[in-house]
Design brief:
The chain is an alpha+beta fold. The chain has one domain. Helices cover 28% and strands 17% of the residues. It contains 13 helices and 13 strands. It has a seven-stranded antiparallel β-sheet with strand order 10-9-8-7-6-5-13. A four-stranded mixed β-sheet has the order 3-2-12-11. Strand 11 (355-358) and strand 12 form a beta hairpin. The longest helix has 21 residues, at 143-163.
Length: 427
């Protein structure tokens, strides 16, 4: 399945500002810094308008940045005790203290919101009310930004429901988000951010590592359907997610790694992932249209590649992302880059030792992307070394070749519909 393809000209036809030098990525501490990847303070975020005091920017900062002490701090974080890369390193952590307090979030994918105190809640309510019909109409002149702001508000509403905080704000967040809804026809014309970023002579992402189905140049990939966890359930993420696999020996060899349709999961070791095996995960926004119906959009916001490079022993000398043979590539959409209409600045490359505040498992933990990804994706210290950190190959996941390419999009729409039902019941 392919979304309606829209050119860069169609995207920049909306009123955008001249490209500046202060994008969100440049407001993060650089690689090598003790706080690499985290937002710099004071944060001057302008994801939705050039004026940092625009109401949409204020809403974003109130919801998508937070100053707090993480509940947990991984030992892999700079400044902690030296961490040798031996078995068990991914689980080393301690409880957070007030000395770990910092500002987290920003123009990325990690929402740090855990609830608001009375003053912050009052300010958020005022800003939501300030997003009047005139302001919404102006935002809708750039449909991609209207969809993204809607997603930001809905993610915040879902989080407050999840943590059972500030529940009185949920109806206002919901209603404001729904007012940003566009007609189905407008959503169908949204730009494919990944294809635009991969276009031209100097693509912003490695086109040779990404499937032709997504605008890359790599052949041999097949999309799969699968049973996925809460981390990829759109009822919680408001994102569709698609996975593509490639076996170095071709599609027939790939088919041998997947369970046969209707076959009961076999006991014992799973299939063996070969050197060069690669998975690509792509996630994009699900919008709510003007009629209140969830619609998958071509606005890709998250791209990840995973490749088995070797099966050498775990150690600092194994120069891979996980230090035991797996390499990752991670790219996240920048709202400000999207607003300015420059495809090469749509996505920010995330580095292995960049820090972020993760709450994938319900607890706000400060760690690196290397540390977080290696929890589920590693070759060593695993009861399933044959899978080489590709949980999609587990039998119970029931991975199978996609038929239409629509399967995961329709599933995500159904899942967002469930969330919408919960939000509508919140009064």
């Amino acid at each position: 399945m392919t979304f309606a393809r829209r050119s860069l000209a169609a995207l920049v036809a909306a009123p955008l500002l001249v490209l500046g030098s202060s994008l969100a990525a440049q407001q993060r501490w650089p690689a090598g810094h003790a706080r690499a990847g985290l937002v710099q303070e004071p944060l001057q975020a302008s994801p939705y308008a050039d004026d940092v005091d625009h109401v949409a920017n204020r809403l974003f900062c109130r919801l998508w940045t937070a100053t707090l002490a993480p509940a947990e701090v991984a030992q892999v974080v700079p400044g902690e005790a030296p961490l040798p890369f031996v078995e068990g390193w991914v689980h080393k952590k301690r409880k957070g203290t007030n000395g770990d307090r910092g500002t987290f979030g920003g123009d990325g994918r990690m929402l740090p919101l855990e609830g608001l105190d009375d003053d912050a809640a009052k300010a958020l309510r005022a800003d939501l009310l300030a997003l009047d019909d005139k302001a919404i109409a102006a935002l809708q002149t750039n449909p991609a930004l209207a969809v993204h702001l809607q997603n930001d508000l809905l993610r915040a509403a879902q989080r407050l429901l999840d943590v059972e905080r500030n529940l009185d704000l949920v109806p206002l967040l919901r209603d404001t988000a729904l007012r940003l809804g566009l007609a189905q026809q407008q959503l169908a014309l949204l730009p494919d951010t990944l294809r635009l970023a991969l276009g031209g002579d100097t693509p912003a992402l490695p086109a040779n590592e990404l499937p032709q189905q997504l605008g890359g140049t790599a052949t041999g990939f097949r999309e799969i359907t699968r049973r996925s966890t809460r981390l990829f359930d759109a009822e919680h993420t408001l994102l569709w997610s698609r996975v593509f696999l490639r076996h170095p020996d071709g599609e027939a060899a790939l088919a041998t790694l997947l369970p046969k349709p209707g076959e009961k999961p076999a006991k014992g070791p799973g299939p063996t992932a070969p050197i060069g095996f690669r998975a690509v995960l792509v996630q994009g926004l699900v919008a709510i249209d003007a009629a209140g119906t969830p619609r998958a959009t071509p606005l890709v916001v998250d791209v990840r590649t995973q490749t088995l490079m070797n099966r050498e022993p775990l150690g600092a000398g194994n120069a891979t992302f996980t230090h035991d043979g797996l390499d990752f590539g991670i790219w996240q959409l920048q709202r400000e880059g999207l607003r300015r209409g420059a495809p090469r600045q749509f996505f920010r490359a995330v580095h292995a030792d960049d820090l972020d505040l993760f709450r994938d498992y319900g607890t706000a933990k400060l760690t690196t992307y290397r540390g977080q990804c290696s929890l589920c994706h590693r070759v060593s210290d695993s009861p399933e070394p044959e899978l080489a950190g590709f949980p999609v190959l587990r039998a119970h996941v029931q991975a199978a070749f996609a038929v239409t390419g629509d399967e995961r999009l329709r599933l995500a729409e159904e899942q967002v519909g469930k969330l919408l039902g919960k939000l509508r019941a919140a009064n």
